[in-house]
Amino acid sequence: MAWFKKARKPIAAPEKASRVPEGLWIKCPDCAAIIYTRDLVKTLSVCPKCSHHFRLTARERLLSLFDGEHWVEHDTDLRSNDPLRFTDTKPYRDRLAASQKATGLADAILVGVGRIEGLETVVAAMEYAFIGGSMGIVMGEKIVRAVETALSRRLPLIIVSCSGGARMMEGALSLMQMAKISAGLARLDRARLPYLSVLTDPTTGGVTASFAMLGDLNIAEPKALIGFAGPRVIEQTIRQKLPEGFQRSEFLVEHGMLDLVVDRRDMKATIARALRFMRAEAVPTGEAVPASEAMAAAASGPSR
Ligand SMILES: [Zn+2]
């Protein structure tokens, strides 16, 4: 114990104005190339030197997929009501407010209906900047509503995952979303509507363990981390060194966990090709089935 207490104040560094405007250049974490940010927009945030895929925001993702960069957004104001009144290092309520302010979104997912090479499609894209793209009650509800939109309008569904898994601040309620969404997707399957899962870096935890792996096609971006538990946890559990590239897209395709690894610049064309192929068997365009009929068909369909 000191006899004299002196309040220490850190020496404030004089604010020096940088001559380079903030965010004009970005360094590639893979090949260390310095890239002009505007060039990156043209390549859909893929490094022109080494094809490193930078993370996209949910909005950028929809921009990269929909024709004319146009879509109709659904359920924009669904937000979590903090059912457990959860507090860790800070209250969940505050965390939500901070993320909402930073991203301009109400929760970690955006749902839009638009056209992909002319094919009307429902796309749900996750926002990693919103509490790690975590899956809570809002994400579950929004995806199920997206499924219902797809069912009633006979549209294909695409979910672009970018998530750390279930949202622990909503405890078991967030885990229940795995079952809720999977049940929704089963109805889509019975109605013979395509569901494509696009997995981006990272797709982990409860998201991988449920709907991200349930696509009629599971398509990943190159070198994306995809898994349930993290590599460190697995290493400690099985006490073995994991092989090179473990839990990355290319490794998972080789081992039969995924169908395709597709460069982001080819993603839209690949999705459109797959949808055209899958819809060949579906109801011809222009002959939309009314919602009630689709629901009835889904309810009476064979269970699997
Ligand atoms: Zn690079």
Which descriptors would you attach to this protein?
binds zinc ion, two-stranded antiparallel ribbon, globular, seven-stranded mixed sheet, 304 residues
Description of the structure:
By secondary structure, the protein is α/β, with parallel strands linked by helices. 35% of the residues lie in helices and 16% in strands. The chain is built from 10 helices and 9 strands. The strands form 2 sheets. A 7-stranded mixed β-sheet has the order 3-4-5-6-7-8-9, with helices on both faces. It has a two-stranded antiparallel sheet with strand order 1-2. Strand 4 and strand 5 form a beta hairpin. Helix 4 runs parallel beside helix 5 and helix 5 packs across helix 10 (291-300). The mean pLDDT is 90.
Give the SSE layout.
Elements: E1 25-27, E2 34-36, H1 37-42, H2 58-65, E3 71-74, H3 92-103, E4 109-116, E5 119-126, H4 137-153, E6 157-163, H5 171-190, E7 195-203, H6 205-208, E8 217-220, H7 231-238, H8 249-254, E9 260-261, H9 264-279, H10 291-300
Parallel strand pairs: 5-6, 6-7, 7-8, 8-9
Antiparallel strand pairs: 1-2, 3-4, 4-5
The structure holds zinc ion (ZN).
Q: TL;DR of this structure?
A:
This protein has ten helices and nine strands. It has 304 residues and is an alpha/beta fold. It is globular and about 80 Å long.
